[in-house]
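FAQ: What does a ligand-bound record look like?

Like this one, built around zinc ion:
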Amino acid sequence: MTPDLLLRDGTLVHPASGTTETADLLIRNGTIAEIGTALSPEGEVPVYDASDKLISPGWIDMHVHLREPGFEHKETIATGADAAAAGGFTDVACMPNTDPPLHTRDVIEFVKERAADTLVSVHPIGCVTKERDGEELAELADLAEGGAVAFSDDGAPVHDAGLMRRALEYSTMLDRPIINHMEVPSLNPSGQMHEGEVSARVGLDGIPGLADDVMIARDIELAAFTGGHVHVAHISTARGVELVRRAKARDLPVTAEVCTHHVTLTDAAVEQSGFDTHTKMHPPLRSPEDVEALKEGLADGTIDALCTDHAPHATFEKEVEFAAAPFGITGLETAWGLIGRELIDPGVLSVTEAVQAFTTKPRDILRLDPPTLTEGEEASLTVFDTSTRWTFTEEHVHSKSHNTPFLGDELVGRPWAIYNDGQFLQQEA
Ligand SMILES: [Zn+2]
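The answer part, i.e. the structure of the complex:
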């Protein structure tokens, strides 16, 4: 932990302009004091050799579950922040499906207080409805005043269309997006995995892509009608991507995010892994055609942001029969290595585009001021590379939970350090 630091010879990535430059970057007292070549600062300043590294404004994961309050055996705000930092994130936005849910101002403020001492900046997302039960609108203005950056009932959709309409009308006045977990519940009464060839063969109840697509189509029309910003949480289907593409062509206030695991694995992984419960998540791993469409959506800008939907569960909860296991996997520590392997290496995204999907674009959605690598700005940055091939093992897990299908995987590209809130945190090689 050091407030003053010289990052020597790094490649600075500026996502706002899409440019890069090689430079030294000097931080003094948490502020970017100087950017230039061959800097020789006065006094003793620790030097970090960044000659084979990239430096960008700090990354944000806009969709994580930190589990506190209520489920501290899975994760706490502190351990979730550790996992985020290990993954190169200076910021996370956390979902409100806690117990109690983040449905009142005091619970939002509790999260902010618990996060006050963490190196990672935590941005709570408030509930759309009281008790997150889809019945009655929460006090959205109060939540926004307490620090909620968006509204969502994630884990469940806002299934009542009239309520969603009113939520969008209020959120527009508050200049916040509604992030909807896109699913029509009656189209997925009991699904365990993607409904398709594999589910039919192995005899598990399917979750049809249709359940997501119908809700996305509904919400696009609600966005058109109200002018309210609809953000599609964890988009997973080809049809969903096409719907968002058309909404954007109509200039509607519709944005979307995709999880790193949804561009990495298909429903085949469920069978191939022998029904490993770490292949069970919601939305489920989809078909190869869906995965292709998600990548195309990222490449052409239809999908704005990358995220993880980091969803920790304790070992005893996941070590059960497939049908009995909870949905979700952790994702913060593997996000960048999967992006390197699945998106940057194969040429789906450039490094700058991948960085934009973790910096400027999610912050635009959440109306957060993006940090920049500019003299005089508060230092919030991520140091990383796109070339290191490394095997993800238990020692890289900082989350309280280990429910990831990627243990033992070779990943490409590593986050090496973050600087945020006046502190520098470096990863072990
Ligand atoms: Zn969700």
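Follow-up question: can I read anything off the structure? Yes, for example: The chain has 13 helices and 19 strands.
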